[in-house]
Amino acid sequence: MELLPFFEWAETTFLGYIGKTYGGVYATFGQSLHLMALAVLGGSVLVADLRLLNVIMKDVPSEIVTEQAHKWFRIALVVIICTGVFMAAAVAQRMYHNDFFWAKMSALLVGIIFVFAIKRPLLKGSHADLNPIVIKMVASASILVWFSVAATGRWIGFSG
Amino acid sequence: MTVKKELDVKEKIAAVAAGAIIISALMYWGYQFVGMLEFLEMAYG
Amino acid sequence: MINEMLVQFAEWLYATGGSRAIEESFYLYNWIETTHVLTIMVCLGMLAFIDLRMLGYALPNVSASTIADRLNVPMMIGFALMFITGLLLFYAKPVYTNQSIWFRIKMVLLVVAFFNAIRFHRHMKASASTWCNEPRAPFNLRVSAALSLGLWAGVVTTGRLIAYDWYHCYRDLPGWLSAAAGCVAE
Question: In which element (H, E) is residue A151 found?
Fold first, then answer.
């Protein structure tokens, strides 16, 4: 499947035009909002996963913590994707040729599938019934995948 | 808390997926790190 | 006067070997910056959850003082890393950064956020036992929490904008902006 025409088209859209033409809008509504949402996303991932790893809030039931953290995870993810699409549209052709962009998209896709198809269904019931090693593996994988998404995201800007 | 001996299907899938993610993430960043070392060698001899 | 001194200090820092080594190393500089950005997830992530708890938007069924207390340690670890990497980033580009209006606004916001945090802790200490199981904190703590979120949003935004030189000294700036950015006559 040839994706380049899609990226070329993205730059010609209204969204791409705004981001390309107005640096201030790109930097504040794109980059800064993206980073604020990253804070909330990171917080929700760490609050939930460090709880599952028994590092923090050992005196609060992990079911409550993961449930509440997931609520904010979803909100942050929506903001991150919206601002991310906006930023990518403005520099779409450069993104197409950037290795870190594709690394980030792969990690993001894996992260989303992992959270919604595997982690959430697993943690739905009582956590006491689950094997503690599996819980810890899931929590570690979640932290790793979301920090990788963030780090590869920053490296998009350093390369190409 | 009682720990079950047998994992159910959901746990098995989660364990495999989590294991795959952990290994790939470590391999990816390990690969990036080696790339940096090679770059440093080229730059500074 | 103060701007001249800051420029001198920045130029002295710039001339040190460590500063040159960091800025000239592609991987070192970029990894310090990446770490600085990633600590947003740790420090500001925890901060966001504490503040959102006070406002009643996150974990309303868990005691507020438990949240503030338990998340404080990871938040401070994140902050320490953020602070150290931030210092290193300044150290690597002192001349440019010192005359960035965004950097200067960011520092002001950080100072205000610091006093706001002190105010928050004082009120928290004095009153938490009477309300901490309520879903929302009392009004004055909610003000602090909202202020904290706003201030840190400003810190993130101005921090990101340091990379842009729209209002740098070599541009044509109005007098007040030129003074605020710390520009000095050549």
Answer: helix A132-156
**Could you read off the pLDDT of C143-155 as tens digits, one per residue?**
999 999 999 999 9
* Boundaries of domain holding C95: 2-180
d(CA A86, CA A16): 7
CA distance A7 to C138: 50
Instruction: Report, in angstroms and rounded to the nearest whole number, the Rg of chain C calculated over CA atoms.
Output: 19
Q: Cβ A118–B17 below 8 Å, yes or no?
A: yes
> In percent, how much of chain C has pLDDT > 90?
93
Query: How many domains in chain A?
Result: 1
C186 occurs within a structural domain? no
Of C26, C58, C74, the CB nearest to A46: C74
ipTM: 0.94
Model confidence pLDDT, tens digit, residues A16-57: 999 999 999 999 989 999 999 999 999 999 999 999 999 999
Please give the full DSSP string across C96-154, using - where no structure is assigned: HHHT-HHHHHHHHHHHHHHHHHHHHHHHHHHHHHHHTTSSS--HHHHHHHHHHHHHHHH
CA distance C87 to C120: 26
Q: Tell me if C75 is assigned to some domain.
A: yes
Residue range of the domain that includes A124: 4-156
**Enclosing H/E stretch for A136:** helix A132-156
Domain extents for chain B? 9-45
Cβ A67 vs Cβ A48: under 8 Å: no
Q: Chain B contacts of C26, Cβ < 8 Å? A: 39
Yes or no, beta carbons of A131 and B11 under 8 Å apart: yes
